[in-house]
Amino acid sequence: MLKTFAPLRLALFALCALSLFGLRAYGQVREAGRETVTENTVVYPNGIVQDWSHRHVVYPRLGPIQSLIAVQHDPRAILSWQAAARAGWRRGRGFPPTRGPESGMHQDWSISLGTGTTAPAMYPAKYTFDINATPTCVAGTGVPIPDYIVYPVNVAGSATQPNIVAFNNLYSGTTPTAGICNRTPVGGVDDGVSATTFWSYNIQAAGGLVATSPALSLDGTKIAFVETAAGTAHFHVLAWKRGDGVAANLQSVISPKTINSGFATLAPVAGSGTVTDLTLGSASDTLSSPFVDYADDVAYIGDDTGTLFRVINVFCTNASCTSGGSPAPSLDGNWGTAGGLTTGCTGQLTGPVVDGKTGNIFVGCSDGKLYGFSPAGAVLPSSPLSVGDGSTTVHGNVGGIVDPPMIDAVNGFVYVVSGSFGGASVLVQAGTTSFSSPIPVKATLGAGANFKLHAPAFNDAYFSSNTTSQWLIYEWALNSAGNLDTIYGVGFNAGHAMVSGPAANSFTIASSTPVEFSPLTEFLNGSTDRLYVGGLANLSPNFVVYNLTDFANLFPNALFGINSSNAAGASTGEGSGTSGIVVDNVSSSAQASSLYFGVQSPGTNANTAVKLTQSGLN
């Protein structure tokens, strides 16, 4: 029997942390033509990438030694452990400084995306230049790329409407904390206290929109995303150019640069403002964000008819690409038929997720089933696994799987949710090598057949503690009567096996309006573990924050409630709810641990990119 020992696991993590803490992160990439420097080359140190995929493949810091070693080739594991090491170092030295009790959420800025927004359950993608989490505003000496964030826009682009846009000067804002990126206002040009448009594009190979989340290269110079329209989807890699599509008014995005022809036939050069185009079959893509396997430089994308594509040479970072003429991304002819694998699903696929340990690929479907494949495309044992019943109501595909699976790569488990199975909402745990061994575990979460369920989240103890009783995975659903919003916490047994049956922990919001919730986001800052979620309804407030640090009853105390009658403090109303939420890397700098999301319409802040600062966060 294989045994694991906490001291050895801690020693391994400490070794990783010490060896990685001061590094720029997982190597460097040299690009030609980016800026005019000696020999016309510049070295881009990899920074911190935070996109949708980092919420769906996670790396606990304690676990079997062999597993911890096995996943070290994955940059997401390295980034995750580095962030934990930096946070632990700051906590040990009293950072971030105490700023008093929780008192509410402050909107630093809100910028219109035009007539579009970020789709529900999709995410912006954040790039932080400095691996040591010192925020940067604009490019300068030694900083070729500032911190920036990319928003997909879920509406067809035009001459006055982007379908993908980025902002810099992120750490701007007014009271209670003046932004470190604030500038002298210039009338009609820059308000001085908001982010500024970094670039704005209308990329049109099919007259489509960007419905799903983008993915970033590790050095921040390229963006991978899918443009979709009726009956077609196109995979693009954009080598953005600073200032493209930027209007005289720096808070405006509605003068985008249009690219609808002349697509790059080779890997686009960083800073060139060029983009590649690759057609993915003959179906649209509503839910499937591209997942980039950085180690192999491949991407997986699904479509609305159950085909899973594999694209090679995504960012052209491997020697096989750079020494082979630097080709543009293409479909992998060794995957399925001409790069498209028939999964067995005949409906919409979610974003696929790659297990950082085994390389196995997992993807959910609107039929309520979870599908698993080996790196060679072989079906995993007992795949597909029935999770939901695939049913549809007035609220959409409530019995399907609508968000990507979540993988614990260290302990070898995949987690997936659905809003309807056997009269309940469900959370299922299965193994990452087989869906029959270990036997899958199903937890029930109140009434089903009401709303779609989006991605759950673990508490920090799951990543950092050896105390099994403190591990929880959280999900929002309705209570057993189906009329009140309830947060559920599912516990674990030894060996990280999830507890089956009705969730033992729950907290119901009295007098709440039943709503669908955005994906959950967990974030540890200082000594407080927080859980964030947006209610997808035109309520005020509809942004929820919970404190997960109190384990007295193994369940959280409310900080801000979804309904004002339950609120223990101020909260925010965000149109009709938020997209997926990205949180800045931990830092002692002002505003560097903030929340980014898109706001759904209709509502006061409709169709906007938003940054919030929470009191108590820096």
Summarize the structure.
The protein has 5 helices and 40 strands.
Task: Tell me what you see in this structure.
This protein is mostly beta strands and 618 residues long. It has one domain (6-305, 307-342, 516-614). 8% of the residues lie in helices and 30% in strands. The strands form nine sheets. Strands 3-6-7-8-9-13 form a six-stranded mixed sheet, with no helix packed on it. The protein has a six-stranded mixed sheet with strand order 4-25-26-27-28-32.
Keyword list:
618 residues, 40 strands, single chain, mainly beta, six-stranded mixed β-sheet, 8% helix, disordered N terminus
- Per DSSP, what share of the residues sits in E-state strands of 2 or more residues? 25-35%
Parts with pLDDT < 50 across at least 5 consecutive residues? 1-43, 96-103, 558-570
> Shape, please?
globular
Mean pLDDT: 84
Please state the CA-atom Rg, rounded to the nearest Å. Answer: 23 Å
Number of helices: 5
Distance between the termini: 46 Å
Largest sheet properties: 6 strands, mixed
Question: Which quaternary structure do these chains form?
Answer: single chain
What is the percent of helical residues? under 10%
Structural class: mainly beta
What is the strand arrangement across the widest sheet? 3-6-7-8-9-13
Number of strands: 40
Counting structural domains, the number is 1
Strand and helix map with partners:
Blueprint: H1 6-20, E1 28-32, E2 41-45, E3 48-50, E4 57-58, H2 65-70, H3 75-92, E5 105-112, E6 125-128, E7 148-152, E8 164-168, E9 196-203, E10 215-216, E11 223-229, E12 232-239, E13 257-259, E14 274-275, E15 278-279, E16 291-293, E17 298-302, E18 307-312, H4 319-322, E19 330-331, E20 340-342, E21 353-354, E22 361-364, E23 369-373, E24 385-386, E25 406-408, E26 413-421, E27 424-431, E28 441-447, E29 457-458, H5 460-464, E30 473-478, E31 485-490, E32 501-502, E33 505-508, E34 521-525, E35 528-534, E36 543-547, E37 557-560, E38 582-583, E39 595-599, E40 608-614
Parallel strand pairs: 4-25, 9-13, 28-32
Antiparallel strand pairs: 1-2, 3-6, 5-40, 6-7, 7-8, 8-9, 10-11, 11-12, 12-14, 12-15, 16-17, 17-18, 18-19, 18-20, 21-22, 22-23, 23-24, 25-26, 26-27, 27-28, 29-30, 30-31, 31-33, 34-35, 35-36, 36-37, 38-39, 39-40
Helix pairs in contact: 1-3
